[in-house]
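Following up on my earlier message about adenosine monophosphate. Here are the inputs again, as you asked, copied directly from the submission form:
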Amino acid sequence: MDIVVCVKQIPDVTDAELDVNKDGTGIDTEDLETDINEWDNYAVEDAVRLKEALGGKVTVITLGDEDSEDVLRHALAMGADKAILIDEGGFAFSDALGIAKGLHGVVKDLDFDLLMTGVQSSDEGWGQVGLILAELLGLPYASLVVGVEPGDGQATVLRELENNTQEKVTLPLPAVLTVQTGINVPRYVSIMGIQKVRKIEIKEIDAGDLGLEPDEIGAEGSSVASIRLSLPPVGEGAEILEGSMAQICDKTAQIIRDKGGVA
Amino acid sequence: MGEILILAEHRDSEIRDITFEMLTLANRLGEENNLTVTALFPGYGVSALAGSLKGACDRVLVMEAPELENYNADTYLAVLEGLIRERKPALTVIGHTAQGMDLAPALAIRSGVPLVTDCVDVILKGETMDVQRQIYSGKIQADLVMKPSETYLITLRPGCFPGGSEQGKSADMESLSPPEWTGLRRQFVEYLEAELEDVDITAADILVSVGRGIGKMENIPVVEAFANAIGATLSCSRPVADKEWLPKSRQVGTSGKTVKPKVYIALGISGAFQHQAGMKNADTVIAVNTDPKAPIFNVAHYGIVGEILQVVPELTERFKKE
Ligand SMILES: Cc1cc2nc3c(=O)[nH]c(=O)nc-3n(C[C@H](O)[C@H](O)[C@H](O)COP(=O)(O)OP(=O)(O)OC[C@H]3O[C@@H](n4cnc5c(N)ncnc54)[C@H](O)[C@@H]3O)c2cc1C
Ligand SMILES: Nc1ncnc2c1ncn2[C@@H]1O[C@H](COP(=O)(O)O)[C@@H](O)[C@H]1O
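Thanks, got it. Here's what our run produced:
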């Protein structure tokens, strides 16, 4: 079972206070750590598990800047075999379709049984790239995947729906899956693990190699004319309890007693 | 007169809330732009169910076929591509739900329509459209101006507009015949409901709910002790269930459970919309979070800006019986 996985490097914003950059088109990222997009980590883990069970190769691809090598090394350390880096030059201000075109340029020439992406990227959250790729490749697909069982020329796949419900579907292979968190518990990647894969060669490609015209990607190829980012307005919001820790806890305990009927 | 098309969503003979939320938005945009609002209702044996949209749009198109009994990307792609090409709606609205997220991206490519996913608001002005999104887990608002287009496609985030089946309309019901099915690849097999569970969090009066801010599994006993002290049930956000720190049956949110306790205490939960959807109707919400800008404070009634591991043990003390 040969599997290709698209992985994206994202700024880790969980515990950060964000600021919008001067022209309002992006956020200040200097102080932010980078990480593998949460969903992609689950996708790589699932691909590696399928390979471990059934044999085959796992190839990981990213479209990003030089630093995105880190996300590829992370995936290699998890057990991926090959890595490809598409240089983001020319892709600035691409919409999801522009990014998908870049990835498609590489993926279309690869042999695989499954192409996996994350459900969505945690920064932009389009939830589009994987399914656009499927359509550009003319392949069947399933999104929000929480289980995969490959069979003879097909895969049985569990999709997550609302309210604790799942849907079982079958797809002929090759197929595209967008992987949802919780499908597995991804293995831990240590610094030692990264060290071990540091010599694996990463293939580098750019938009020119893919024969993409400048007007197909980037701002020109995007359906978005302009974007303005801002910090969301603070709503009505909560009454923030102030004072010393002891006072705050006294107040909170009283609220719990009053509202919850706790003795 | 042009139109706005929405894709009605239903499952197990029930219309999903998002359907009426989309109609609320569509009716507003329709009024502002002099467009009629059409709901497409695909399914099998659904004409009576489709009738319940009568008061909320101008036209209901019912398309019935055995192949449409359950949602399937391939059949829905065929139906919607045909309809969009034929009717050229100024805007097509699909829910940002498990169904709509699955359908919209491929549909956009197949029908050549520009797509914006997970919109929280939309302004349509003739052949231009502005949309609002939330990115970076709700920490940043993004206002997009789209390039002019004859027809747009969006997915709408659930919970952004009120619903309601009576919106002062009286729709014509039309039935459409399904297209010829070719190239169907994916097959629906069955729905699977969650297995039997240890506790039912929807029955609890007080929920102590723990999020990724708890840091590691070893810290769970701290919140467990607190829950025990106040007689609460323990629930969680998705990452805590994903990491298997607590069972999946404890997860609150769109893909977990919807809860409505008297008191909901959110510890280290940022308040993503998928989480809020499951708890925003709690009578009283208390949130503890180190980030004063965490979106959870927008739905909480009381907030404590602080560390779980400092606040919770001290709070637990308050309920210790002498
Ligand atoms: C299709 C789909 C369905 C989903 N369904 C659900 C669902 O049903 N339920 C759900 O919850 N999510 C769901 N999600 C995920 C959701 O988008 C968020 O990723 C998730 O809710 C985040 O969980 P969290 O708030 O625990 O973690 P984070 O967003 O990582 O937030 C952690 C919070 O803890 C705070 N914190 C950190 N350290 C401390 C500390 N020491 N003390 C106090 N606070 C601290 C941080 O400031 C932060 O606000 C779904 C996502 C998708 C795509
Ligand atoms: N720049 C990128 N490089 C590689 N994969 C990407 C990139 N952007 C998005 N993806 C993949 O597409 C998925 C969905 O992303 P998005 O459509 O941006 O929400 C991600 O989880 C990744 O697997």
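One observation from looking it over: Chain A touches chain B through 80 residues (CB under 8 Å). Hope that helps, and feel free to reply on this thread.
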